[in-house]
């Protein structure tokens, strides 16, 4: 959708690239790592033009626009899923998975403690719903339909990450459909 504010976007991107160049130079970066999203674009772009090696970490099974655009000049692309050569040059891909803090890894996990934290029962399975980026809206709408169909007879307990833009709307929905 066209909006007059969008006319300023190219100028804001150029300003961000200039700031990124200055920060990279002042910091004396030897390598720059980007995790996708529009915020990492200007920083990686600047580093690549300055001859500084860049690493991209793509944590989704479908590569984001920013990562796809910057992949050609990246030295290494760390991915979490097989089959990412459909988006990136195969010779640059390194399978790393998604980084996790130790307490979230299997070795550090305590099921009973986690269930107690969420007030969940031990005899029912737990479903984790996590949307990302643009898919959050779609997942939220699907979950609303699922909640309406399940009613009080749900065979699972749900942890639902709605995204900050939808949290209030989803809380209101759940208050009406406990």
UniProtKB/TrEMBL annotation:
Keywords, sorted A to Z: Glycosyltransferase, Transferase
Gene3D superfamilies: Glycogen Phosphorylase B
InterPro entries: GlycoTrans_28_N (IPR004276)
The keyword Glycosyltransferase is assigned to this record: yes
Residue ranges of domain Glycosyltransferase family 28 N-terminal in the record: 5-77
PANTHER family hit by this protein: GLYCOSYLTRANSFERASE, UDP-N-ACETYLGLUCOSAMINE--N-ACETYLMURAMYL-(PENTAPEPTIDE) PYROPHOSPHORYL-UNDECAPRENOL N-ACETYLGLUCOSAMINE TRANSFERASE 1
Protein name per the record: N-acetylglucosaminyl transferase
Species lineage: unclassified sequences, metagenomes, organismal metagenomes
